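Researcher: Watch the backbone:
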Amino acid sequence: MNKSLGRNLPIILISIAVGLLVFGFLTVRVLGGGAIEAVGAGIAENEGSGWLMFVNALVGVSVALFVQQLKWGALRVTLTVIGALLFGFLITMAFNMDTAARFSRGEFRVSVQSEAEPVEQEGVDLEYGAARGGDLNEPGVRNPISEGRYTFAGRSGDVVHVLAYAANRRSEVNLEVALLDPAGVTLASSTSATEEQVAAFEDMRSTNDAVIGDFALPADGVYTIIAKAEPVSLSTTLSEASSATGVAFDAFLLGPLQRVNRWAVWIQDALTLILVGLAVAVVFRARQFSLGAEGQLYFGALVSGAICLAWGNIPPWLVVPIAILSAMTAGFLWGVIPGLLKAYLGANELVASLMLNVVAQRFYELVLTFQLKPADAGYIASDPFPAGNILFPLIPETQVSVAIFIVIAAVIATWLLISRTTLGYEIRMVGANRKFADYGGVDSRRVILLAMALSGLLAGLAGAHLAMGIHRTLILNISIGLAFEGVVVALLARNNPLVVPFTGLLYSYLRAGAQFMERDAGVSFEVVRIIQAVIILLITAEALATFFQNRRVQRGGAAAEPTPAPTVKKEQPANA
């Protein structure tokens, strides 16, 4: 035992150090805005700061467990996520490649300034002191223009200033201007303005405007001005795209930690994801690809919500536990159905669970629409739950509630079930090799049935959290594919219940960051969908690599076996 502790001591110390660093970072970011000296003021200002620090400590514990449980596997998972984020950065940068288009697109004006008297000439566009303009390269315009051509009449010796400038402060178009003589020969051109010129002419906006200053016209006649956007260099395009992507990813990666209410969005979503991830991990450990957690979640939400609404006059200390237990029971029973179909009828668990999800969702909508929705409601939702029949919030004005303790209990119970019970051993054995488990006396059909049912129990608990802790009412689409997000959580955790809290927190952080990236930087939520897809692909690729590596090892072992030498039967002489 001492030798085992000695071998594991470095990883334990690393785990503790990483957990403490995460705890400190989260606390400083949320309560201190990134400044350590401001943490004290943040604690004083926030009523629930004690619970906030407690939750941050739990996040640190989950990170420590992640490192301690997976060891080098934790590094692989971390690199997988980093690789997906880098890919997401490149995809976002590709979407932002048109950011520099603002330098070649927008409303502009052209004018000729001169102290000389204007020349009266019909058919010209400009006189001295007048301005004309338009929109360059605007998308969706009926007659878009890429350059503006304007004429004016001048005399020999007139000193003029040709101005091409953005029409308003919102337009950042970067202009260039050229002056052509009556024969069409370019006399002068400019791509910028000096600070002195910007200050001298009231209409000028910035040095990106263009000015041909103090030019003496060589002859009488009609001159032409050509104004257009200055070509945007590749380096500028890449720089602008990179800068815009940096702003987006700053909102993505740090947005959930800017304020307490944003931090709460992350944590409350993570609690549900952890429960769903546990549900998926249990059934995956039995190597059953059941995706029935979505329907079980809906039934858990429906049953718990109906009890909270119906028992408004009963003490909350009695209603809340009954509602939670009822939600777990509903999920358990709905999980029994695909378990029976798979174990005893040989039905495909993937098809059965997906079809049952549809049944559960439609039944939920039916009951909500025709039974629980108030008659005078303008939208489909139940009445709000009575104030006492919800999961009590730990931090004011958030949905971070006592569900934290329920999740802790669920994680510990699931780990004990998988690692320390006979049923857990049987689940792992069936998952490793069902034929061998049958040969060893394990009733694999019973194990498959119980694995799916217990998975449903945890998914039903997640539904109760959504209904009683997050929404505090029943609404349509209470979960939009949340159970499928749980699949990624379980896969990232290698179906290890002690690692699921970390992967649930990580995945929820990505989801919360996507909201703030979309809100603060205008980047679509779908970018995070791409990151999620890449994570799944990389995990799958790693699993395939392991599979083929094992196959090579097996083939190499078979090839290395010595072949027995052939035996030659010696014939006896005829006269023997």
